[in-house]
Amino acid sequence: MEFLAISGSVRRDSTNTALLRTVVEIAAPADRMILFDGIGDLPIFSPDLEGDATPPAVTAFCDQVQRADAVIICSPEYVHAIPGGLKNAIDWLVSREEIVAKPMALLHASHRGEDMLRSLRLALRTVSGGFDENNFVSFPLMTKQPGEVRHIIMEPANCARVTGFIEELRNHVLQCRG
Ligand SMILES: Cc1cc2nc3c(=O)[nH]c(=O)nc-3n(C[C@H](O)[C@H](O)[C@H](O)COP(=O)(O)O)c2cc1C
């Protein structure tokens, strides 16, 4: 299958992006997982820019969502909320067909962030009937460097949790297809 993995952080040494990069590695070669790290390139959402006026970066992002069998999101919490860039990306998707039934699941790279998770789950429930809230895996990776993140996730017990997450997402996609 093809998965799109979206990081909610644009920080260079982001733990969320490092976790997703490692998950991309674990998923291959059985599944093709593409890391989307371009939320910082999307202009601020405005309904005035929908339709014919849609900016090219948004069209490219929506095309990637369209092509993916499922979307994975992994995001930090900023000020007890969804980071602005990720929320902006979700806002761009809200009135588009690409997202309506898209299978989705969350990974998490922190032992904290419950307010962000509550808000993100509500947003994803709102935009997609395919959001699977039951498939959720979290690792306490805050303050780790990307190399350390990879090392921790590649440990057999953690790698098995990632493999289980991907397997459940694959089954969810098949279930959604009916
Ligand atoms: C501006 C800012 C606000 C933050 N607010 C919170 C917060 O409200 N709750 C929390 O648990 N962590 C908060 N953090 C910590 C980040 O969530 C944490 O460092 C996370 O690991 C960053 O993700 P990244 O490594 O992928 O960039 C904040 C960090 C920054 C820079």
Sequence of strands across the biggest β-sheet: 2-1-3-4-5
The number of strands is 5
Range of strand content = 15-25%
Radius of gyration: 15 Å
Helix content: 40-55%
* Number of helices in the DSSP assignment: 6
Rough outline: globular
Structural category is alpha/beta
The profile of the biggest β sheet is: 5 strands, parallel
**What is the CA-CA span between the terminal residues?**
16 Å
Helix/strand order: EHEHEHEHEHH
Listed once per kind, the bound small molecules are:
flavin mononucleotide
Low-confidence stretches: none
Q: Report the average pLDDT across residues.
A: 97
Give a brief outline of the structure.
The chain is of the alpha/beta class.
Would you write up a description of this structure?
The longest helix is centred in the last third of the chain and has 22 residues, at 156-177. The chain has a 5-stranded parallel beta sheet with strand order 2-1-3-4-5, sandwiched between helices. The chain is of the alpha/beta class and 178 residues long. 44% of the residues lie in helices and 16% in strands. It has helices spanning 15-27, 56-67, 84-93, 114-127, 146-153, 156-177; strands at residues 2-7, 32-36, 70-74, 104-108, 131-138. The model has no long low-confidence stretch (mean pLDDT 97). The chain is built from 6 helices and 5 strands; from the N terminus they run E-H-E-H-E-H-E-H-E-H-H. The structure holds flavin mononucleotide (FMN). Flavin mononucleotide binds next to helix 1.
